[in-house]
Structure formats: structure tokens, C-alpha cells
């Protein structure tokens, strides 16, 4: 029965985590490539996913989480561990960009690891917002994002965007696969690896067929994210920030907070430079996005406390 819970909740977590978080990395790319058939985009994303996870499996002795679960030993999965992924599916359908790292991992970690995750996540939001603000202030001196891309440069930007998306997709997977792999032993068999890759690929194709779902609306609400040049720059900056925190330490963090922090910092920079936009009109948008993050973290903490309470009473 324990193995049944482990596999079942792993499958639920796979869909809910990828559906909620993958739009952070693929959303701008999807929105600026609407003329490209969705199945071509899905194939590209699937190949990147297969390579990234398979590489981790070979490099980390059967571990697909890139060592992110080093401080979270495998525990026997029980029925109450399935509460988090079920709620995550509901929140994803509603359109709340909840932190899957907190929602899923919080039911498996100690308080010390939880504190480390919170600190790293808050730091990630701040670093992303400040980096984005400074970067877009500087880049505005040499590049007008609102201006049209010259015809001779469009193909170059298009190719560069595919490169940036691939880099970002890899960076994100090295962080967030841990949110799914936590339900599995830290060393899985080759047959299990194949099963995971096939299932993940099916999820990717489903998400692309749906156009990204409701989380994609947050991406589209930001200035110029549907344009190839802006999307490429956003992807590169986000990827480098995730790579920095990946190398910093193995403690998991919420990539959702980093993503929203990045977009918020960029919007503030654009507003600062604009003669027609006022900061007071921007703050309600930033506050709304931040409020959703806080709501997601609060829900995550409450769920973790509830699961730990249930687990404690059953022992």
C-alpha cells in the first residue's frame, strides 16, 4: 500500500507542479511563439526535460532531483501526503501561482530546513526584483523594448529566444523536480526513470495543448512579454538568477517567488522610465501578485501543519 501511495501521489504531484510552475519558464516563450504549432513547442520542451532528468539520474546515482533532497531523507509515503498535491491542482486551476516547493516539501521537512527554505526564497524574491530593476534601467539606455525589431534581426532574436528558453527550462528543472521526486526513493531504477520521462512528456503536451492555463494570464499581463525580444531578455535574466541560487547551496527554494519578483522589478523599472505610467497605478498589480504568493505560502504552511498533526496522531 505504501508503494501505491508513493507512485499515485508522485503522479499527482507531477501534473500539479509542472502545470503550476512550468509556465514561469515557458510562458513568455509560448506567448511570443503563438504562430508556431503547439506540438512543435511541446516537443522542444519535452526533449529538454528528458535530457535534464536523465542527466541527473546518471550523474547523481539514480537521483533525479540534482541533490536538492540531500537534507530531506526519504520517508514512507502515507495517504495524508496526498493532500498537498490535490490542493495544488485546485489552486492551479483557479490561477493562484502558489509555491509548490512549500506546499509539497513542507510536509516532509524539519523546521530547520523549512526556515532555510523561507530565508532563501525571500532572498530570491528580493534579488530577482532588484536585479531586474537595475538591469532594465541599464538596458533601456541601449535598447528600446517598445520599438519594433528590424526585419533583419527578427530571425536572430527568434533563435536567441529558443536558446534562452532551453537554458531557463534546464535551470528551473534542476530546482523544481525535487518537489516531485520527494515522493520517491532517492535512488530509482532505470525502468522507473523511463516511466517518469514518458509521463512527464505527456503532461507537457497536455499543458501546451491547453495554451498554458490560467497561470499564463499573469505572464501575459506584464508589459511586452509576448514579444520575442522582451521574452528572450526575461528568460536569460531569470535563468541566470536560478543558476546562481542552484550553485549557492542545495536547499530547495520557491522559484515562483523568484519569477514574480523578477517581473515586479522589471515593471517598476519600466514605470520609472515611462513618462506616461505612474508608480501608484503599478503598485496594485504588484501587491496583487505578492498577495497571491503570501496566500500560497500561508496555505502551504497550514497544510503542512495539518499533515504533521495527522501524522503525529497516527503514530
Helix proportion of residues, in percent?
over 70%
Pick out the low-confidence regions. 220-226
Mean pLDDT across every amino acid position? 80
Structural class by helix and strand composition: mainly alpha
Task: Quote the distance from N terminus to C terminus.
Answer: 17 Å
Integer tally of domains: 1
Total count of helical runs of at least 4 residues = 12
Please tally the β strands and state the result: 0
Cα radius of gyration in angstroms? 19 Å
Helix-strand pattern: HHHHHHHHHHHH
What amount of the residues lies in strands? under 5%
Query: What would you call the shape?
Result: globular
Largest sheet: none
Describe this entry's structure for a reader.
The chain has about 325 residues and is mostly helical. The protein has one domain (about 1-315). The protein has helices spanning about 1-30, 40-60, 85-95, 100-105, 110-140, 150-175, 180, 190-210, 215-220, 230-250, 255-275, 280-315. The protein starts with a helix and ends with a helix.
Summarize the structure.
With about 325 residues, this protein is an all-alpha fold. Helix content is about 75%, strand content about 0%.
Give the secondary structure arrangement, pairings included.
Elements: H1 2-31, H2 38-59, H3 83-94, H4 100-105, H5 111-139, H6 151-176, H7 178-181, H8 190-209, H9 216-220, H10 228-248, H11 255-273, H12 279-314
Which key terms come to mind for this protein?
single chain; about 325 residues; mainly alpha; 12 helices; about 0% strand
Amino acid at each position: 500500500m505504501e508503494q501505491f501511495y508513493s507512485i499515485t501521489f508522485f503522479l499527482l504531484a507531477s501534473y500539479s507542479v509542472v502545470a503550476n510552475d512550468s509556465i514561469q519558464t515557458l510562458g513568455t516563450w509560448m506567448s511570443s511563439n503563438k504562430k508556431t504549432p503547439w506540438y512543435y513547442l511541446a516537443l522542444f520542451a519535452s526533449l529538454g526535460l528528458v535530457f535534464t532528468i536523465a542527466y541527473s539520474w546518471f550523474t547523481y546515482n539514480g537521483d533525479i532531483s540534482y541533490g536538492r533532497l540531500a537534507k530531506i531523507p526519504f520517508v514512507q509515503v502515507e495517504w495524508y501526503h496526498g493532500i498537498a498535491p490535490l490542493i495544488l491542482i485546485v489552486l492551479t486551476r483557479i490561477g493562484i501561482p502558489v509555491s509548490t516547493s512549500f506546499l509539497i516539501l513542507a510536509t516532509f521537512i524539519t523546521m530547520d530546513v523549512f526556515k532555510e527554505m523561507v530565508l532563501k526564497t525571500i532572498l530570491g524574491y528580493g534579488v530577482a526584483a532588484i536585479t531586474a530593476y537595475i538591469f532594465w534601467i541599464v538596458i533601456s539606455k541601449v535598447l528600446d523594448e517598445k520599438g519594433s525589431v528590424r526585419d533583419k534581426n527578427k530571425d536572430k532574436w527568434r533563435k536567441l529566444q529558443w536558446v534562452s528558453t532551453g537554458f531557463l527550462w534546464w535551470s528551473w528543472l534542476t530546482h523544481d523536480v525535487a518537489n516531485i521526486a520527494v515522493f520517491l526513493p532517492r535512488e530509482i531504477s532505470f525502468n522507473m526513470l523511463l516511466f517518469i520521462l514518458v509521463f512527464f512528456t505527456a503532461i507537457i503536451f497536455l499543458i501546451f495543448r491547453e495554451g498554458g492555463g490560467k497561470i499564463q494570464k499573469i505572464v501575459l499581463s506584464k508589459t511586452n512579454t509576448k514579444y520575442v525580444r522582451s521574452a528572450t531578455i526575461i528568460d536569460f535574466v531569470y535563468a541566470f538568477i536560478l543558476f546562481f541560487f542552484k550553485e549557492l547551496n542545495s536547499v530547495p527554494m520557491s522559484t515562483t517567488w523568484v519569477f514574480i519578483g523578477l517581473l515586479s522589478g522589471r515593471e517598476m523599472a519600466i514605470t520609472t522610465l515611462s513618462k506616461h505610467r505612474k508608480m501608484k497605478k503599478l503598485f496594485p498589480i504588484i501587491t496583487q501578485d505578492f498577495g497571491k504568493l503570501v496566500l500560497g505560502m500561508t496555505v502551504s504552511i497550514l497544510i503542512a501543519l495539518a499533515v504533521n498533526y495527522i501524522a503525529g496522531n497516527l503514530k
